[in-house]
Amino acid sequence: MTCDDKPKRIGLIAHDACKRDMTEWVRFNARKLVRHKLYCTGTTGKLIEGVLTAECEGGPVDLTIFKSGPLGGDQQMGALIASDQLDILIFFTDPMTMQPHDVDIKALIRISTIANIVVACTRSTADYIITSSMFDREYEPEKKTYESYTDRKVRLSGRR
């Protein structure tokens, strides 16, 4: 990363069956990740904090840990995305287990799509993202305004 580049704001979430995969991925990419602002949900964040502290020999890590996903952490992450405060979401999902907070997960993916941020739900996609030449430079994604949608909703409700 050059001096001109600002740190990426990266969200890290992993379902229970994927936490080991996430911690291995973070360990492998620790030197790159610690140069950025990290946000994690609950247990995933505690595990990542331990990995980064060990890998970086106690050096500074800019890490914010939210509540557990089902207890509001998914919404906290979604709020960052909705307010343009997250650049990348790495969310290792477990496709084999029904999640009791599945609607929260779908909402998080949906708001990520609306905000047009980079999203990885698998380790191989996360590998492509972190090894991309664009990872270490500034990138401003195109933002849609969705004006036609919001204008249509106002017209349908009779409000102006």
Keywords:
45% helix; 7 helices; 160 residues; single chain
Would you mind describing this structure in some detail?
The protein has 160 residues and is of the alpha/beta class. The chain has one domain (9-157): 3-Layer(aba) Sandwich (Rossmann fold). 45% of the residues lie in helices and 14% in strands. It is built from seven helices and five strands, in the order βααβαβαβαβαα. It has helices spanning 19-28, 30-33, 42-55, 73-82, 102-115, 123-131, 147-157; strands at residues 9-14, 37-41, 63-66, 88-92, 118-120. Strands 3-2-1-4-5 form a five-stranded parallel beta sheet, sandwiched between helices. β2, α3 (42-55) and β3 (63-66) form a beta-alpha-beta unit. α4 (73-82) packs parallel to α5. The longest helix is centred in the first third of the chain and has 14 residues, at 42-55.
| Approximate helicity band | 40-55%
At CATH level 3, the topology is Rossmann fold
Low-confidence stretches: none
CATH class: Alpha Beta
Neighbour order of strands in the largest sheet:
3-2-1-4-5
Strand content: 5-15%
**Secondary-structure content class:** alpha/beta
CATH architecture group name: 3-Layer(aba) Sandwich
Tell me, what's the shape? globular
Query: Could you state the order of secondary-structure elements as H and E?
Result: EHHEHEHEHEHH
Strand runs, count: 5
Count up the helices: 7
Query: What value does the Rg take, in angstroms?
Result: 17 Å
Tally of structural domains:
1
CATH superfamily: Methylglyoxal synthase-like domain
Q: Largest sheet, if any?
A: 5 strands, parallel
N-end to C-end Cα span: 47 Å
Please state the average pLDDT score.
89
